[in-house]
Hints:
57% of the residues lie in helices and 9% in strands. The protein is mainly α. The chain is rod-shaped.
Amino acid sequence: MKAQIIEKDGRPEYAVIPFEDYQHYLELLDDEADAKAIAAFSQEYAAGKAFVVPDEIMRRELAGESPIKLWREYRGMTQQELADRTGISKPYVSQIENGKRQGTIEKLSAISRSLGVPLDALTD
């Protein structure tokens, strides 16, 4: 690579490089930033601090299914088991899952704790 050096007051101020080289260096910087982000996530995940949504849940939620139902099923729970763990009636759980009720923040928080997922994983 050949760079053109532009001086100011007798000292190098700018380096002008071919555009192709510039693009290459930008890609290298992006790769480095991506690698750092992946390393940070890997550390958090290994320490149990990162939350990961399984692909199947993500696809089904994007298709319109209830995240509460998806996480309940993923955890191998029935509606009755979730109701018992949260102190919410089974019909209320059913109504939240099928969209007939939104649920209060207290009830949704109880559900998120029982399912072991962050509250925002269950709400829009």
